[in-house]
Structures
1.
Amino acid sequence: MALVEIRDVYKSFQRDEQRIDVFTDLTLDIDAGSFTALMGPSGSGKSTLLNLIAGLDRPTRGTVTVGGEVVSAMSAGQLAAWRARHIGFVFQSFNLLPVLTAYQNVELPLLLTRLSGKERAERVKIALDVVGLADRADHYPRQLSGGQEQRTAIARAIVADPTVMLLDEPTGQLDAKSSQEVLTLLQRLNKEFNKTIIIVTHDAHAAERAKTILHLEKGDLIEKPRMAAAGR
Amino acid sequence: MKYFRLVLANLGRHKLRSILTIASVALALFLFASLRSVVTTMAAAAQFGGARRLVTLNATGLVFPLPLAYGNRIKALPGVTGLSWANWFGGRYGDGKNFFANFAVDAQSYLDLYPEIVMPADQKQAFLQDRTGAIIGDRLIHDFGWKLGQNVTLQGTIFQGDWTFKIDGVYHPTDPAIGDNVLIFHHDYFDERIGRAGIAGWYIVEIDDPSHAPQIAKSIDDMFRNSSSPTKTGTEREFQASFATMWGNVSFLMNTIGLAVVFAILLITANAMMMSARERTGEIAVLKTVGFSDRLLFALVMVEAGTLALTGAAIGLGGAKLLYPAIKFNGAGFLPGFKVATSTLIIGALVALGLMLASGLVPALRAARLPVVQALRKVE
């Protein structure tokens, strides 16, 4: 059974008098332990799909199931708790809280758990270690480079050991070197820790690191999933 | 507790703004506590007075004297067990900036009627035997650096001239409403200096039973109703209350100013909270993505507003509570026993809670209801 099951999803937005159909009938499966890149032009529905999987948005019709739980049927309160347990989200612009140190930013998802302060500290240390920023724990975001900020954001996304990692253009604001570092890190998380990763990207080089590439255009999968070079 | 660090971090985002907001709340509640304490102190003064003491004044007003001859007639009434009299003097010391009450009394009878005025027996005796002597409240020692046995000279404002008194005794009042900054001297000396013997400013009448007060007061006033100086008699509490009533409008004004100040600060605090929440729209969306629930975010913003309001309240109310006793404030002598009452602190704390609710509610609701996708679209 697939980890992420998207069934007959119809999604539309109302903008003033105009209705915009993003997905008309999308069906898609994403397996556990996969590393999937979603590609497509702006407005093709990549980020909307990510938001639907994360439970940040709801389909107008159809169902979104993650790990056997029907995300599209949950209440707002249930969704918040579910996200805290199962989703690790990484943004293009990092979105670290500027008033918190790297350590405190990474700790945020763990505040929602029942872990003790000591247990939280251990997990944060491991997460920062995995992304290679153990020595930057006390730095504030303004004291980090873009690549370091994004790696901190990835540490925040993995610290609670989520079921799925969702990344929206994670290399969009990084230079080439930092992009490679982040993509290498994601590959490592997928291979060594068997993390299920779904990444939205415009960058073909970034997509090549994924095992599977999906192309979206105007809300439709325009070709069947194909295996990327790294996944072969 | 684990979330409080987040609250503190957010408050530290714009330190100056947070400090100014706290300072505004502190100032508002300090003013509120101060103004309300004027009102409560006056109200407390109106409660002063032994239930067994009546005060007889000239019916026309306090500034009009009564014949001293009234004394014996009052004393002869059934139920009257003691009598004394006093006269407002209104002298000033030095440049007059430090006002204090001073009046002439029939010393022996006055001290008999006021056991609240406590001083060493030898000082009391010295005063009773010294025609130009005076006793003073212990606060005047502190205010002017006077010493026992020293001569002090007051300038008469109503009764002109320099009036020199020897300090024979220093008393400490057991009831703060008596006033610890009063100078009391002999009525005999007063009569002698002004050359107008036989007058009293007011009489203090001790009665056998408080329940007889209305009847005795009526008897006194009836006795002088058709004389050249009709009287008005009431209990000492009524006498004090009449002063408080004169302050009635001031009391209303003070309450109104107090509320206006609090309301103005409410607007400032609410504005600061709104700005703070608006600036963090993106961060709130990120926290929701991480898994923070609407309810938790609502609580965090409310706690943030509460931290500002309650810290300000603690500084403002605590400051008022500690400051006034430390500087022995008594409103230039008009507010003896001035203190910030517990009820004022409780009301102030409730005002702070109200401030928290009023300033935090809208931003907290906004944070809770923020649609994540739209907010993230703005940030990304």
2.
Amino acid sequence: MRKIKELVIEKSLLTSALVTIAITFGIIAVLAFEAFQFFTEVSIVDFFTDTQWTPLFTDKHYGILPLLSGTFLTSFIAISVALPVGLSISIYLSEYAPKSFRKTVKPLLELLAAVPSVVYGFFALIVVTPFLQQFIPGLAGFNSLSAGIVMGIMIIPFVSSISEDALYAVPKDLKEASYGMGATKLQTAFKVVVPAASSGIIVSIILAISRAIGETMIVAIAAGQQPRLTLDPTVPVETITAFIVQVSLGDVQHGSIEYRTIFAAGITLFVLTFLLNTLSYRIRKKYQEKYE
Amino acid sequence: MKKLVFIISLAIVAVSCGEKKEQKATSETAVLEGTIKIDGSSTVFPVTEAVAEEFRTAQPKVKVTIGVSGTGGGFKKFSRGETNLSNASRPIKDKEKAACAENNINYLELEVAYDGLAVLVNPENDWVDNFTVEELKKIWEPAAQGVIMKWNQIRPEWPNEEIHLFGPGVASGTYDYFTEAVVGKSGSSRGDFTASEDDHVLVQGIVGDKYALGFFGLAYYSENKDKLSLIGVHNGAEIVKPTLETVSNGTYRPLSRPLFLYVNSTSVKSPEVIEFVNFYIDNAAELSQDVGYIPLPSELYTKQKENFNAFVKANKK
């Protein structure tokens, strides 16, 4: 009797694990199928080399580059904000802050990631953009700068939390050895602890980038809906995710080429985040071996 | 005490209002039953829907269903006799007329309201005062994609700054209409502008951008008058800004158009359709304004009604 009970529990646990995997594969299959249909009509060379993306208009161009540049531009700005701030926070929390302070501040920081991104989006559009326009006269109402900055604020906890864990996990003997050699606290933090935890910090950055690339609401609301190949942060751009939102909300016909563009865009996005996540997984594995 | 008096008087007012409404409903013609099928333009839909909603209070037993297949899709069903009424944002085409004739469908065209498009810039824009239709065409035609990027390419005295364009998404009737009126071919425009079906996005974009230029339905402009500045369009003879007057007298060309309702002859044998259409014409002026369109001059409504009554009489037998 007991054996059967065990068996049932074991099998049900196995099923739930398999269900997640099955769903993932299902999504990949649908994406790949529709994207394949898309690439039978549009050449893959055009897809990666054309500099215009206008699938919904009369003069149709299917170049993903403008969407990619929009995605990378906003993500780059976000990382430029999140990396220095997040890293400083994590170093302070793990090396300098008293334990009680660390215990209260860490969950508060993680709250930043709990704010719905649609709220961040409107914050960028209604507060940050008008504020920045006081200093940057040519700043458009929709721009990658304010969307990127706000997205950076949102992903600070990704950087700070994970790298703080990595810094905290650096063995005490390393630090003590450093102090024993006469190093100051600052020297120990930056020359010993940070390098020792570097792989963990890199993982945190990659995860944050992956989050930024996949972020949708903030860029859809605040960065604009105009695909253009540019590195100028003051003008409207469109990211891959924002394009998918735009097409999904409009009424394009199912099965049409316009409809399939979202799968082509989606699979590009998926490949990007998949590569980043795999990379971070590899690095994390390597780092775990180092001190165990 | 004062408060109590106030509440009581409020209650009395409320009650008496309610009574009035009931009286109005019962004093009208007998209670009708049936279903009225309408399909067609998404642009006319808001007016028809508002009318149908009001009609429900007057004739609660008549079911009115309104589809939005677009003007063309609506006529397709209309010509097969599948619908009683058809919403249209343009007059019926010859091809559609032929389809109706094939199925022995006689129809009557009724004008119900006007729709106008507004061309807008940021209030800080102090150089633009008007556009000609040719200039608008130069900005929006497909050939402009990636080419017309700066204000001074349109008129040399305008600033050497990038022009940021905002317009309705390709799925909207407004886009079709604008491209038809300005570019000359419906659904044909450049693709490198901020296109959104959500008019709020367009308003936000133009409000936050000194070098913006955009267009959308006049209804949206009237809700955001203080934040945007309206630009007049040169119609060949003079510069005209869209207003109640210029749209209804036809001088705001080509960015204003009439909206239509088509009735077929077999439907006017049923009293609920006659009642509904009469109700529509009687209330179109007020309700079209409510949803952001511009009413016809009142004598035109009277004329529509006369036409309709003649049409009903002719098809009575």
3.
Amino acid sequence: MGEPDLEVAPNDDKDGAAGLRKDGDALVEVRDLVKHFPITKGVFVQHKVGAVQAVDGVSFDVRRGETLGIVGETGSGKSTTARLVMRLLEPTSGEVRFDGQDITKIKGKRLKSVRREMQMIFQDPYSSLNPRKTIGSIVAEPFAIHGLLSSKGERRKAVQELLETVGLNPEHYNRYPHEFSGGQRQRIGVARALALKPKLLVADEPVSALDVSIQAQVLNLLRELQREFGLTLIFIAHDLSVVRHMCDRVAVMYLGRFVEIGDAAELYRFPRHPYTGALLSAVPVADPSRHGGARRLLSGDVPSPANPPSACRFHTRCPKAQELCSVVDPELEEKPASRGLVTACHFPLDREEVEAIGLPSSSQSAPSE
Amino acid sequence: MSDPAQPLLRAENLRVEFPGEDGVVHAVDGITYQVFPGKTLGIVGESGSGKTVSSLTTLGLTRIQGANVSGRILFEGRDLVALPDSELRTIRGNDIAMIFQDPLSALHPLYSVGKQLTEAMRAHRDISKRQAQERAIELLGLVGIPDPKRRVDAYPHEYSGGMRQRAMIAMALANEPKLLIADEPTTALDVTVQAQILALMERLQDELGMAIIIITHDLGVVAEMADDIAVMYAGRIVETASAEALFANPEHPYTWGLLKSIPRLEADRSELLVPIPGTPPSLISPPSGCHFHPRCAYAQPDHSRIDPQLEPVPDDPGHFVACLLEPEARRRLWAELQEGRRPQEAISEVGLGGEAG
């Protein structure tokens, strides 16, 4: 278990591929973040018999104004990471600095004022809106919580402006959530998140519950709002095409750890971690002429995070694993020939291997077929 | 065996309506499709397009819900719509099997997977419990469940999501069906597991020669799996073609909308996503004329009056589209969209309606 060395910024890239930097350009700085959920047994006396290692030593920065994507399979810890950054969960250890301030220890008024600056959009637009409240009062709730805009008229005006910003009819102020479709509800969620003009927006699978034709509406909206308000965005999704469209940088998570993080274009063009390669090659491509590429299928399921494999956690499913992988934990570092991408792997993919997978995004460099 | 030139299943003018409190829901509104032996038909559509209802009807599962069904579903010369329940039962799970989106709710939580598998076999065949148990183990091995001898006695909650879906496929295959209907078989799964399941279905199709109807909203999945594709919107098929033709030369504005609203893995961030405005219509009172006209950027005034029929696309045998635009205009519009133009820009380039009309 080596300490992740924060000083190893590669010399040709002043920012460092993982975006770890010390000059205050990062809005969010996460260091060695750990969240273990205890597993207990017993009826009257609870004994701790183990721990689900949901997030296990994650470090990253989110730069101002960028979109950082986090991808990974179910149970990889991506939602837990987001909730830790929002401090909706207490970390077991580690640090989350928001705007220079460590928010893992603060309480009361200070925490409340930090919470104003960060907002979340949830996956399920059906369960994240209170069905008994009008959308006017749902969107106005952040004002009420933080004691802003006390006059009714002011609040109403602010809410109507927000509804208009997200492309809803401001006249619908007095309607209830059930009168809206899934895509419209997601817009209401976005309006509520924007109410306090946050600096950071965390979107956890914001479009995966929506129909294909509606997804694009919400994605376009998020991108427009980001441009307009200079928002910083953490975007969590399992759909790699959506992440490609939305993000400047992408982190790939596997069993509570980041296995690769860096520039999105580079990650999709020349992934170095075998897991990233497998994820990308598993995406079905809407083009029948591309049929029958040498798809790399991962065998088996993700191991249990309560009992993760030793050293490199991917070694049990990795096609390139050797003995070293089960003994020595690989660190995130920039591999030769990578640009702006750090990878935790002893035997990273080389160009030939990436071409053999037949990634659609690498077809510029590799002639298809 | 079955003649590969004859469709194994053919739905003709199928109509399914559910009487409800607020009015009649026209879930499926006169659709015709067919699937050939050993081939895969993909049915694509959003929620509420009627894609699931049409396949449930094939198995006679909408009758139970009090639906009015008209039209015909011919399976090996027999009309499934007219067949009495007792006869349908001998086909269901035997000649035609179905796998569902959510394996956890489709498997019985209180019976072991093996018990459910053997029951499915013994319902249709006269075999002993021992034989059935052996076959169950064999099937679980076939679909790639590790250590099937031990897992056969496990309960569904002891399986992971991907393994449950495999168990459902094993159950569907138990009687070597001629047709497998897969309704969103991978929607609840991670991409890596999805790739495993899709590969498994393709392999089994090759080995057993069964036909597959795959129902999904995911254009990537149909592109990988299907030989032919039918696109459904508001209870109707708006376009049908071979997979190659549909992705290379889509004809219907709704199909364009679907293709242009998904980000592509190979594109960069500057790619323009063109969402379809609005939301899918209510099936109680669907829009008049072309059901898609309220959301269609290219709709002309008379499109709200005239009901388009599926008509052959010129010079493209096997490709049918229900659209009121002129074939030439459609071809040029799609070419403009492919150039990265927005619908409005494409319209002014092509000179649709307006000056031309």
